[in-house]
Amino acid sequence: MAKQETRGRKALPENKRKPPQATVKINSIILPFVIQLKGSLKKGSLSPDILQNLFNVLNGKSIANNASLKQVQKYDDEHRKAVSLESETRLLKSEIRSLEARYEQLKHKEHDCQVLIKTGARCTKPAKLKASWQGIELNVCTQHFKTVSNQQKNN
Ligand SMILES: [Zn+2]
Q1: Could you tell me if residue 75 is inside a domain?
Q2: Domain-located, residue 24
Q3: What is the total count of domains within the chain?
Q4: Which helix (H) or strand (E) holds 25?
Q5: Could you tell me the distance, in angstroms and rounded to a whole number, from the CA of residue 97 to the centre of ligand 1?
Q6: For position 5, what pLDDT does the model report?
Q7: Residue percentage of the chain with pLDDT more than 70
Q8: Distance of CA 137 from the midpoint of ligand 1 (Å)
């Protein structure tokens, strides 16, 4: 009868034996990573995606994960908002321009000669003088100043 082996750990029963595991010596620099990896594995948080990303980093490839994808989407959203604000600004600017033009038109009308010409439309010459007509002060151009003054005298 052979001498029984008594060194080392007592062997587990057949049905409780773990599958064979590799034993490696680890440099102290990478030990913290291995410890964290083992912890994550135990917690079940070491997904194939994470493993793949880790290998990608080690191989010098970029990580395309959800976080950076979300950043890109966020940037796109902000960019879209900015573009729509720009077009809104352009719209408002053109509205301001048209209002300014209308204002100039009205201001001009106020300072134009107020006398009606033969066609019934208003004289479009600038009113440089003021004439008194039936107790009312009128803005008139130099040409119509005489007409209004003469009418006033004849009344
Ligand atoms: Zn006039």
Answers
A1: yes
A2: no
A3: 3
A4: none
A5: 29
A6: 65
A7: 92
A8: 14
Entry pTM: 0.36
Q: pLDDT (tens digit, 9 = 90+) per residue, 10-50?
A: 777 777 777 778 888 888 999 998 899 989 989 988 888 88
What stretches of 24-65 show up as alpha helix (H) in DSSP? 31-43, 48-58
Q: How far is the CA of 99 from the centre of ligand 1 (A)?
A: 26
Clarify whether residues 104 and 119 are in a common domain.
no
Domain boundaries, position 47 = 29-62
CA of 125 to the centre of ligand 1 (A): 5
Residue 14 lies inside a defined structural domain of this protein: no
DSSP string, 58-91: HTTPPP--HHHHHHHHHHHHHHHHHHHHHHHHHH
Residues 107 and 69 grouped into a single domain: yes
